[in-house]
Structures are given as C-alpha cells and as structure tokens.
Specification:
The complex is a heterodimer of chains A (339) and B (531).
Chain A lengths: L2 H33 L4 H11 L3 H18 L1 H10 L1 H20 L6 H31 L19 H25 L3 H32 L2 H22 L3 H23 L2 E3 L9 E2 L7 H28 L19
Antiparallel strand pairs in A: 1-2
Chain B lengths: L2 H40 L2 H35 L1 H35 L6 H30 L4 E4 L2 E4 L2 H5 L2 H35 L4 E2 L5 E2 L10 H39 L1 H8 L8 E7 L9 E7 L2 H7 L9 H12 L23 H28 L9 H9 L2 H16 L4 E3 L13 E2 L10 H32 L1 H4 L1 H16 L5 H4 L8
Antiparallel strand pairs in B: 1-2, 3-4, 5-6, 7-8
Helix pairs in contact in B: 1-2, 1-4, 1-6, 1-13, 1-14, 2-3, 2-7, 2-14, 3-4, 4-6, 6-7, 6-12, 6-13, 7-8, 7-11, 8-11, 11-13
InterPro entries (chain B): Cyt-d_ubiquinol_oxidase_su_1
Keywords (chain B): Cell membrane, Electron transport, Heme, Iron, Membrane, Metal-binding, Transmembrane, Transmembrane helix, Transport
Membrane topology (chain B): Multi-pass membrane protein
C-alpha cells in the first residue's frame, strides 16, 4: 500500500474537481457572454457575478498542475509534453480570457468591448474544451513509450475520448453557469437563466455522465458504480429542484453530480494516473510516477496548513460578495478623461 | 535550428516577457499598500487619490503578469519533460508551495480589494491589499528558491539518476536564494520607483505647461488650481509626493541592489566561476575589471577579445574583497570543468544525436559580458536620474522643460532594462547546464544536468515552432495593448482612476431621486466597483 502517493492522488483529484466546480461556472459565464447575454448591460451583469472570484478560482488549476509536478513528476512530464499542442491553445485561451475580464471595461468604446467579449467567450470555450480533453485522456491514456514520451506525432492524442471529455466539460460549464446565474442575479437574467437551465440541464450533463460511465465500466469497481449512482441522483435532483425554483439546492445538486462523478472516474482509474495505450507495462501509476516519500511528507505538511486556509478565505470572499447582481446595479459606463 | 534551440528561445521569450510585469507588480503593490496605509492613518485626500491612481495602474499590469504566469507553470512539463522528470522531486515542491501559499492569497485578497472598497470595513480592506502584497513577496521567495536550486543544487542526492530531495530546509535556505531574494526585490522596487517618478513628473510638467502651477522669483512653486475635475491643489500634492516617493524608493533600491549584487557576485565566483569569467570575457587569470573590451566577444574564443579599458584590482575586489588575488579566467576554467564534468556529452539516449559531442563550457560571452554591463549601467543611470530629480523638485515643482519631461518618462524603461539584462545574464551564464553543478561536491556523479538533455523528447520541432510563434505574436500584441492602456490611464490622471470625482458635485442632488429606484437602499452597494 502506497499510502503517501495515494493521499496525494486524492489531494490532486480534489483540486481538479474543485477547479471544475469553481472555475466551471466562471468558464461557463464567459461563454454565456456571447450565447446568453442580450445587451451590454446584461454582459456586465454576467461579468460582475464572477468579477471578484474568477482569479481565485483559476488558481485551483495552477495549484493542481503544480501539485502534479511536485507529487508525480512523471505524470506531469508525460501528460503535459504529450498534450503539447492542446495545452498551448489552452494557455493562450486562458490568457485572452483573463486579460479580457480585466480590460473589457477600461476603454469606453463598443468595438473594444465587443472584441474582448469574443476573447472572453472563445477563451472560455477553448480552455474548457482543452482541459476536459486533458482530464479525459489522463483517465483513458496516451500512446506513451517506456520512457513516458508520447509517440505517433503531434496529434496522437486526438481520439473520441478527447472530444468526449472536451464536450463534457464545456457542456457542464454552461449548465453550471446557468445555475450560478440563477443564484447570483436578479430580474430578467435570473428568470431566463432558470428557464434555460430547466431546458438544457439533461443534455448538458449527458457527455460528462457518458465519460464517467465508460471509465467506470472499463474498470468495474463497485465503489465507483455507487458514486456514479449518487452523481446521477444529484443531476436528477438538480433538474427537479430547478423546476420548483429552489435555486440554492439545485446548484448544490449540480455540485453533488460533479463531485460524485469525478469521484467515480478517479476511483476507477486508481492506482493508474496515466495509462499507456501502447503497453500496460508503461502505465504511470501512483507507485512509479510519484516523488519520494520525503518530498510527499513535506508537501503533506504544507497542504495540512495551506488547504484549510485557502478554503477559509475563499469562503469568506463568497460570503462578502453574496448579494445578487442585476441590471439596476450596473453604473453607467464612463470614458477615461483624455484631458 | 533544432527543437532544443526553439525550446530555449521560447522559454527565454515567455520568461523575459513575464518578468516585465512581475517587478512592477511587486514594487507597485508595496507602494499602493503603503499609500493606503497613509490614507488610513492620516485620512488625507491626496493619499486616497494616490492609492486609487497607482492602484489602477497596478491592476492593469497585474493581470498581464497573472495571465503570462500560467505559461510558466505549465511549460516545464510541456517543453522540458526530461528536466521535469530529473528535478521534479525537489523542484516541484517550491512551485506547489507558491501556488498553495502565495497565489491563492494574492488572487483572492486582490479580488476583495478591487471590489471591496465599500463592502468591507476599512481596516479589513487595508489588510486585503497587504495580504495580496505580502503574498506576492512570498511568491517571489518560492520561485527564487526553485531558480536558486538550478543555480546551486542543495539538499538532494542522486537516486537512480534523478535528483531526490533529502532536506527541504536546505532548499529553502540555499545561500544563493538568500542573496537572490533581496537582490530581486530591490530590483523590483527600483522599477516601481522609476515608474512613479516618470509619470508624476509628466503630470507636474503638464500643470506648469497649462499655467496652473507657476514659480515665484526665488523659484519656489506657487500652486494653483483649474476648474477641470481633479486639477485642484490636492492634485499637485498627489504628483509631487508621488515623485519624491518614487525618487527615494529608486535611490534606496539602488543601494540595495548594489550591496546584495556584490554579495551575489562573490558567491557566484565560487559557485559558477565560468559564468563570472564569461561576464568579464576574461581569458586569463587576472585582477582587472574590464570597462570596455573589443573584439569578437560573440565568438566564444577568448583570444579574440582584448580589454582596452581595465580598472586594475576591481575584479579581484568583486570576487574576493581584496585587490590582488587572481580571478580565474576562461582558459584556466575550461580544463577544470572538462575534468570534473566530462569533455563530451554522455552517451545517453537523452542526448539523441548530440551524444558524444564536445561540451561547450563557455557561455555566449557577448550575452554575459554585455548583460552584466547593461544591468549595472541602467541601474546606475536610474539612480543618478532619481538623485537629480529629487534636487530639481526641491522647490516644489519640475522645471518647465519638455525635454526633461520626456527624459523622465523614458527613464521608466531603465530599471526594466536592468532587470531583464540581469536575468538574461544569470540564466545564459549558467549554460551549458540547466542545473549547474554545485562545486562543493565534486565529480561526474554529482547532481547536475546539461540543457541538451532537458528538452521533451516526444515534442516535435513543428510543435515548438508553432508555439513559439503563437506566444510571441500574442505577447507582442498584448504588450502593445497594455502599454497603450497604461498610457491612457496615465494621461487621464487621478479622475481616470476615480470616476466618483466626476459625480461628486452632482451626487447630493441625485441621491434623493435614485433612492426611489428598483434597487432600494440596501442593494445600492452591491457593486462598489463594477467592470
């Protein structure tokens, strides 16, 4: 039993899941900037629901990446080098999105704002798709040789699972964002978000559920099946609750779906962190991909203090900015004085 | 060009670019937090205005640092997978600590600060900018711990050909780190100092040009005001104090970078003697510091280089603290390195076609020689300019000279140049190693790694060409966008960062009307700040 590597597998799974839960809605809100909002005021309502929190949400991804590096260097090296091209696109997309959030309102011009709206929407779409593809492939495998290097060229990763994972995360983010908007806005946006959520929730969660089912089926662990059942129950509950106007519980239902679904996937693949599709002997596992027990021990101490602190002040932020945002709160846009 | 060269160019381009934003973020963050503290303590209007104005510029710059920092976290694995496998056990830990302990704090508290102006109690709001600022310092510490380990590996042993951490405390108190950290911080403060000085000078000059401020017969300022929003007497205080703070920060930083730089150089002469010999383009052992060398410095053959102006004894002082001990030159060092670390690249699959080729132990001397000198020259120029500026504004305003104003504004670039040159020198000077050997342990079984072995074996040339082109193009575009946006907000002055000033006069009458609106009183403060 590899106790420390297993602990770190769980911590990393927790961070990827936390990332999808938190940034999930701000990625979705980013996409909805073009898909859902009807005018500039509505776009600013959307933007301001995530304004104070999106950057903190994104750190979950950075931390998950850094933790994979620290705890499983071979997983980090093989996965990131193997997915070179899609990750370049993810990084560029995240850059445009981040800059868009901050710069959109800083120049009083329709063209400027429209440009950044597209940067935010497409940036969110591409990064959600790419991260979904990456997470799906780390559960279904890449063509890795004995050294853990990808063989077969720059597009060797591109297969049905990559597309399914990409779609799964994009669709989940959209549904999650609708639930978030229903919870965080008021007036017209809130009502439209609720109606859209009712309509799109079953379709939006289907690809993620399909990915989970495929992974759980191929490993066939009882515990994973149970988690999958919980996930489906969460999805159904979210759908019913949204229909009755129970906004908070519906949002929580989606959370249950995501956490249990991710749990089903990660528990299925354990102890493999990145399978090789060439030869199972080349699989990266918690045992052969991890750092030394000394390093994992040091990092465990850091995590013991760091994680509760992060959760505490992130919760505090959500509490401070708990009020609903609606069109009436949006101040008039103003020009920077040219003097 | 091969994959290795492209990967190095990409790392260089993305990192130098990222490090344009980082020092300004660190330095300006501390300035803004201090200004807000002054406002909190004194309650004076000018400190509020300074906090808001410099805070706005801080944020415009901050986000670019965040966005480009993502690339840094990912590209070790993407382009340098062999490196990641070799060092992951020790190098990943400080990165993970940086994320968990610093990045979260920085981003979350900055979110609270931006949106919390009216929602948070004043002391909590002040604490949030301090939390974000201190977190940025912590982040610098962790990332420099990782970098210093590459310069001087400690706290590890070699297990199955990989560096495995045995002592995290040694990694976090590496002597290389203990001098690099203050050196980098002072470098960052010098950037902020020059930034404040240049922009404040521009505004004081504009007030004089527009006839708002004049000078009396003794040359002392007569502060005036103008009906335009934000061009009152407080506005003069904003710029004069900003200018003085900037100049003082620049001077203190220069003293700081000089002292810590001296310590760092002495350490480097022991830890990486070849880097320092190459910084001198010095072939032979000697004691003189070259002020100007001519010849083909780029050739790496040091017999092509002739020192024409030399300060005798200074090099010995930089290295040893006296004026007579010989410092080893390149020609002495090459055989020493060859004996210790081999004269050809090992016959290992990691080197591909390079296996068996001779190792080029001398870094590109044109880069190390000039990098070192540009760093020092720009640093000294910025400090001298700050001293002159402080003297010129002793009577309360700047001279009405367009050229001086332009000089002050372009002077903003000097500390940026010094920072970039210093880093390019230190990273290029480490070559051909990606992890430089620690000379305290001897021989080939030591923990070190040639850059030639570090690149991702599975990533093709085409992928790297695509990514380096894409990153360069996007970064250039964003640089133009950021600089133009900064310029707009700089020109706009305080009102561009405080739209509330525009409404302040009308506020009293309008407030009563708007209370009847849909939001109601309670909801009015949902967004004290809005995108």
């Amino acid at each position: 039993m590899e106790s420390l590597p297993t602990l770190w597998f769980v911590i990393i799974a927790f961070f990827f899941t936390g990332y999808l839960f938190l940034e999930g809605f701000d990625l979705g809100v980013g996409m909805l900037m073009r898909l859902f909002a009807r005018n500039d005021t509505e776009r600013r309502v959307l933007l301001n629901t995530v304004g104070p929190v999106w950057d903190g949400n994104e750190v979950w991804l950075i931390t998950a990446g850094a933790m994979v590096f620290a705890a499983f260097p071979h997983w980090y090296a093989s996965l990131f080098a193997g997915l070179y091209l899609p990750l370049v696109l993810v990084l560029l997309a995240l850059i445009f999105r981040a800059v868009g959030f901050e710069y959109r309102g800083k120049v009083h011009s329709d063209r400027w704002r429209a440009g950044w709206d597209w940067a935010i929407a497409l940036g969110s779409l591409v990064s959600a798709f790419g991260i979904g593809a990456m997470l799906a492939l780390t559960t279904t495998g890449l063509p890795l040789n004995a050294n853990g290097d990808r063989v077969g060229g720059p597009f060797a990763w591109l297969n049905g699972y990559a597309v399914l994972g990409g779609l799964a995360v994009v669709a989940f983010c959209l549904v999650h964002a609708l639930a978030f908007l229903m919870l965080k806005t008021d007036g017209e946006v809130r009502h439209r978000a609720r109606r859209a959520l009712r309509r799109w929730l079953p379709i939006g969660l289907a690809p993620l559920a399909l990915w989970a089912i495929l992974v759980v089926m191929s490993h066939g662990k009882t515990g994973s099946w149970l988690l999958l059942a919980v996930a489906v129950a969460g999805a159904v509950a979210a759908w019913l609750l949204a229909g009755r106007g129970k906004e908070g519980p519906a949002f929580l239902g989606l959370g249950v779906f995501l956490v249990a679904g991710a749990g089903a996937i990660f528990s299925s693949v354990y102890p493999t962190v990145l399978p090789s599709t060439i030869d199972p002997a080349f699989n990266l596992t918690v045992a052969n991909a991890s750092s030394s027990d000394y390093t994992l021990g040091v990092m465990s101490v850091v995590a013991l203090f760091g994680i509760p602190a992060v959760l505490a002040y992130q919760l505090y932020t959500y509490w401070v900015f708990r009020k609903r945002v609606s069109s009436v709160h949006i101040p008039a846009a103003h020009a920077v004085l040219p003097q | 060009m091969e994959a290795l060269e492209i990967a190095r160019w990409q790392f260089g381009i993305t990192t130098v670019y990222h490090f344009l934003m980082v020092p300004l973020t660190i330095g300006l963050g501390l300035v803004v937090a201090s200004l807000q503290t002054m406002w909190f303590v004194t309650g004076r209007e000018q400190y509020l205005r300074m906090t808001k104005f410099w805070g706005k510029l801080f944020l415009i710059n901050f986000i670019m640092g965040v966005a480009t920092g993502l690339v840094q976290e990912f590209q070790f694995g993407m382009a340098w997978s062999e490196y990641s496998r070799f060092v992951g056990d020790v190098f990943g830990a400080p990165l993970a600590m940086e994320s968990l302990l610093a990045f979260f704090t920085e981003s979350i508290f900055l979110g609270l600060w931006i949106f919390g102006w009216k929602r948070l109690p004043k002391p909590v709001h002040l604490l949030s900018i301090w939390a974000a600022t201190l977190a940025s310092l912590a982040s610098a510490y962790f990332i420099l711990a990782a970098n210093s380990w590459m310069q001087h590996p400690v706290g590890v042993e070699l297990v199955d050909g990989r560096a495995v951490m045995t002592d995290v405390w040694a990694v976090l108190t590496n002597n290389t780190l203990l001098v690099a950290f203050p050196h980098t911080l002072f470098g960052a403060f010098s950037v902020a100092g020059g930034f404040l000085l240049g922009i404040a000078w521009y505004h004081l000059y504009k007030r004089r040009r527009d006839g708002i401020d004049t000078v009396d017969a003794a040359g002392k300022v007569v502060v005036g005001s103008n009906p335009a929003i934000g061009r009152d007497r407080t506005d003069h205080k904003v710029w004069l104090q900003s200018l003085r703070i900037g100049a003082v920060v620049a001077l203190i930083s220069f003293a700081g970078v000089s002292l810590t730089g001296d310590l760092q150089a002495k350490l480097m002469f022991q830890q990486q003697p070849m880097k320092m010999a190459a910084a001198e383009a010095a072939c032979h052992d000697g004691t003189g510091f070259s002020v100007l060398s001519i010849g083909d410095i780029g050739s790496r053959n040091c017999d092509d280089v002739k020192a024409v102006v030399e300060l005798p004894g200074l090099l010995s002082f930089l290295a040893n603290g006296d004026f007579h001990t010989d410092v080893k030159g390149v020609n002495t060092l090459i055989p020493e390195y060859q004996q210790k670390y081999g004269s050809v690249l090992p016959d290992d699959p990691a080197y591909g076609e390079r296996a068996g080729q001779p190792v080029q132990y001398v870094p590109v001397m044109a880069v190390t020689y000039w990098g070192f000198r540009i760093m020092i020259t720009f640093g000294m120029l910025a400090a001298a300019a700050a001293a002159v500026a402080l003297w010129l504004v002793r009577k309360g305003t700047v001279p009405e000279s367009k050229w001086l104003m332009r000089l002050a504004v372009f002077g903003i670039l000097a500390p940026f140049g010094a920072n970039s040159a210093g880093w390019i020198f230190t990273e290029m000077g480490r070559q051909p190693f990606v992890v430089a050997p620690n000379p305290d342990f001897s021989g080939i079984d030591n923990v070190f790694m040639f850059t030639a072995a570090a690149v991702s074996p599975g990533v093709s040339l085409g992928e790297l060409v695509f990514s380096v082109s894409a990153f360069t193009l996007v970064y250039l575009t964003l640089l133009v966008v950021e600089v133009r946006l900064l310029a707009v907000y700089c020109r706009g002055g305080v009102p561009s960062a405080m739209p509330e000033l525009l409404h302040r006069d009308r506020e009293d009458s309008e407030d009563r009307d708007s209370d009847g609106g849909t939001g109601g009183k309670d909801d009015g403060d949902v967004l004290a700040f809005a995108y």
